[in-house]
Automatic annotation (TrEMBL):
Keywords: Antibiotic resistance, ATP-binding, Cell membrane, Membrane, Nucleotide-binding, Translocase, Transport. It comes from the Bacteria. This is Lipooligosaccharide transport system ATP-binding protein. The keyword Membrane applies. Its main location: membrane. It comes from Allocatelliglobosispora scoriae. It is found in: Cell membrane. Residues 8-238 form the ABC transporter domain. One of its GO terms (cellular component) is plasma membrane.
Length: 310
């Protein structure tokens, strides 16, 4: 981990909308060259935090510093040094892929010749060079997300912000986008991303915070969070009917259980042994699956709900 000054430093960060507090006094740092994740369900405060980091929304309280500057007073200077890939598609459908990049470059005062060179390089990077002259409307959802990332990189930013970068994409498109983001990581680009996909966070993030109701409930590397809050394995039991009374019959199997509407989770260091114990007791599960613990299990343990809950 780099010992350089953090690119982003938040202390007691708060965002209010009238009487509603979306972000409730959070502290975190983002270091140069790392991929930092904001993980949590919809409405947890992730997007509000990203809007403050992107300097389009001022903090209601607390301090947010980026590149050594105060986000509350140095917004224009900070914005010139960051790239933003928003959750919603903001591409211009009337322009070609190349034009989407070169026109956007004007906002940063980039000379036309430099903009064209960068556009060609970035379209190659996101594997869209063969579609440079095509209109945006001809692209698939995954292609549009890759183009949005290319556009966000046009000013050679020191920090790239990605808000739910793979929402709505099919698995193949998601994995291709992951590969491109991993390439950026290996180039030394600092990334901050929000997601409610647990596998995405485990795949991409060096460090992350889990937020719920505007507060940070856990922080660390994905591996450390899983090891610190979960057993090694999880036994997932699915039942044909109501699961509300099942937990009592599982007493003594595993370390703990979590009851969800469609399944019961048994946390154990040896999932196969737990499955054998369930079978021995004659507990009639429709199916049983042993898997390794993940970040969704961490969130469920800390908040009592799944990361995907609305």
């Amino acid at each position: 981990m780099s010992q350089e000054r953090p690119l982003v430093s938040a202390s007691g960060l708060v965002k209010r909308y009238g009487d509603f507090t979306a972000v409730d006094g959070i502290d975190f740092e983002v270091h140069p060259g790392e991929v930092f994740g904001l993980l949590g369900p919809n409405g947890a405060g992730k997007s509000s935090t990203m809007r403050m980091i992107s300097c389009v929304s001022k903090p209601s309280a607390g301090e947010l510093r980026m590149f050594g500057m105060d986000a509350a007073t140095d917004g224009p200077r900070i914005r010139s040094r960051i790239g933003v890939c928003p959750q919603q598609d903001t591409l211009d459908p009337e322009l070609s892929l190349e034009q989407n990049l070169t026109v956007f470059a004007r906002y940063f005062g980039i000379p036309k010749a430099v903009a064209r060179t960068r556009a060609a390089e970035l379209l190659g990077f996101v594997q869209l060079q063969d579609r440079a002259a095509a209109k945006v409307d001809s692209l698939s959802g995954g292609m549009k997300r890759r183009l949005s990332i290319a556009r966000a990189m046009i000013n050679d930013p020191g920090l790239l912000l990605l808000d739910e970068p793979t929402t709505g994409l099919d698995p193949q498109a998601r994995h291709l986008l992951w590969e491109r983001l991993d390439q950026l990581r290996r180039r030394g680009v600092t990334l901050v991303l929000t997601t409610h996909y647990m596998d995405e966070a485990e795949q991409l993030c060096d460090r992350l915070v889990i937020v719920d109701h505007g507060r940070i409930v856990a922080a660390g590397t994905p591996g450390a969070l899983i090891a610190g809050h979960c057993t090694k394995e999880v036994l997932e039991l699915r039942f044909a009917g109501d699961t509300s009374g099942v937990a009592a019959s599982l007493t003594g199997i595993g370390v703990r259980t979590e009851t969800l509407p469609d399944r019961v989770l048994v946390y154990a260091d040896d999932g196969d042994a737990a499955a054998t114990a369930v079978h021995t007791r004659g507990i009639g599960a429709r199916s049983a699956l042993v898997r390794r613990a993940g970040l969704e299990d961490v969130f469920l343990h800390l908040t009592g709900r799944s990361l995907g809950d609305e």
